[in-house]
Amino acid sequence: MPEIAALLMIVSGAIHASVNAVLKSGPDKLASRALIDMSGGLLALPAIFFFPAPDGAWGWLLGSFVVHGVYFLALVKAFEVADMSASYPVMRGTAPVFAAMGAVAFLGDALTLPVAIGMGLVTTGIVLSMIGKNLTAPALFWSLLTGIAVATYTVLDAGGVRAAPTTMSYIAWAFFVLGFGIGAAFGAWRGRAFVTYAQTHWKSCATAGAAGVVSYGLAMFAYATGDVPRLAPLRESSILFALVIAVLFLGERPDRYKIVGGVVIFAGVVTLLLSR
């Protein structure tokens, strides 16, 4: 049902913002990312024994693995050099546009006029919310690279979840492969510092890892039944939750552009919910 898929994406976006807040608040963001991913992989491990391997979708999964590695690295770098309220709108604002174009070109998804309008409103609202933020060139680069990576893995995972024998088989194997593979690589990169960091931060990162599994799992369930151009912008409603979190819990100051941007994003979400 289109309505159920849309609801899954909004819930996914809200949870996703919380996961990124944990990452942003951590003193060692690369170690935090490794812990979060490995926790998600550990949670997915039992599931791979209950669902068939994603035969027919291995190519999609391999591509997603490579792009997720780029995404996680770019995300960490962006949060290291900029406030969440500045970098998050850039990375999430560019993602739905590129994802929609990729889904239309490679998956044959439909892009209707109402969906295009709703997508445009969400992206415009996100861009408005970043006005007044002085992003340095490195911060802008890493934020844009994150957005492009998000769009790319969105298309790859949408293709993979549709090509797999069952939705759950792709979801389970994706979290296991991505979580352990990328998490272990980042952990090895940090070396002993990762072990020390894990001893004091494993609880918050494990919680974020579990939330991440739920968040992106819901998104992949939605992509299995709905078109990416309509659904991807709905997940970017996470920017509304991210801005609230940044203000209330990370001590970042709100301004009028964030308020106006939030209103425009909300209008885009409503348009997408009403579109067919």
What is the strand and helix layout of this fold?
Blueprint: H1 2-25, H2 29-44, H3 58-81, H4 84-106, H5 113-128, H6 137-163, H7 167-190, H8 192-225, H9 228-235, H10 238-248, H11 256-274
Describe what you observe in this structure:
- The chain is 82% helix and 0% strand.
- It is mostly helical and 276 residues long.
- It has one domain.
- The N and C termini lie close together (11 Å).
- The mean pLDDT is 85.
Q: Average pLDDT value?
A: 85
Helix content: over 70%
Quickly give the structural class: mainly alpha
The count of helical stretches stands at 11
In short:
The protein is mostly helical.
List keywords for this structure.
276 residues
